[in-house]
Amino acid sequence: MSFGGLALWVAFNAFVLAMLALDLGVFHRKPREVSTREAAVWSLVWVALAMVFNLALGFWQGRDLALEFLTGYIIEKSLSVDNVFVFVMIFRYFSVPPRYQHRVLYWGIVGALVMRGAFIAAGVTLLARFDWVIYVFGLFLVLTGLKMARSKQSAGPEPEANPVIGFFRRVFPVTDGYRGHRFFVREDRRLFATPLFLVLVMVETTDLVFALDSIPAIFGVTRDPFIVYSSNVFAVLGLRALYFLLAGVMDLFRYLRTGLAVILAFIGLKMLLYDLYHLPVTVSLGVVLGILAVSVSASVLTSPRVRVGGSARVERARTTRTRRE
Fold it and tell me: Where are the domains of the chain?
């Protein structure tokens, strides 16, 4: 790696650490509930930062790398919506107070960044040594997409069936209730974990499962380790704000999961056909955006809320006309 490449990695990670410190150390020092308006502002901030980074990348490294980053970022951002649905179910299952949810997601995302960095390093090493791994990734994505398209949304997480949770409960005492926003407390001279830490473990293991799908998908767009890493990081950093923004309206996106399944299958097919035909990144970007647009539009237009709201507006209009007549 050249000095310029190393400097880019160092500068980017310094930026990430600074943003994380600013988030928890300044804006969320005390536990509190995050409003929808605040979540919308932070979502816009993270998207804006990603787009500024994309423009800078295009200026310094060229149009192709910028398009690869943009495509990877959109794929990761889209797949993170599935994370949001599971996070909602985890918080409901454990009855986590809204004012503590941000703290869990913050540390969950810190862990996710470390895990995904390790996964990306492993993927880059495998692809560098064994070219045929790209076909394994491709087949895995196609099968995952088919499975996702055929499966229905689960009713929610089952902590009792999670081997990590089961192992932790056997080896470590857990309090019978929350102790504020703390993950560990000392009572009767013994160290206890709180249920909030179990929630954090569930969030981490859930993201680990999702990373097995999302990271191979990015390798279907680019093999540049910095592009894979940076697109993942920007999508993960915006995950908390996305959760607080979408948590209450997840039922509106009934067909988005199907759209994500199609995207995974498309990227998988692209990887399987890598040696036969290299699809331009502009085409990949257009296909991904098109699938997302169709799935989101279909979800919104067929949502019961939209239909009920529309019927109510029609009924109010009829009543108004009747009164005027």
Answer: 34-301
d(CA 241, CA 44): 9
- 17-27 in b/e form (b: 16+ CB < 10 A) is eeeeeebeeee
pTM: predicted TM-score of the whole model, two decimal places: 0.77
**Burial class for 162, CB neighbours closer than 10 Å (0-12, 13-18, 19+):** middle
Length of the chain: 325
**What would you measure as the largest C-alpha separation in the chain, in angstroms?**
79
Q: Is 307 exposed, middle or buried (0-12, 13-18, 19+ CB in 10 A)?
A: exposed
211-232 confidence digits (pLDDT tens): 777 788 888 888 888 888 999 8
Concatenated DSSP letters of 220-263? TT---HHHHHHHHHHHHHTHHHHHHHHGGGGGG-TTHHHHHHHH
Q: For residues 148 and 261, is the Cβ–Cβ distance under 8 A? A: yes
**Cα dihedral value 208, 214, 218, 221, nearest 10:** 160
Cα-based distances in Å from 102 to 3, 52, 165, 231, 300 = 37, 26, 21, 22, 27
Tokens of 34: 């995050």
Question: pLDDT tens for residues 93-106?
Answer: 888 888 888 888 88
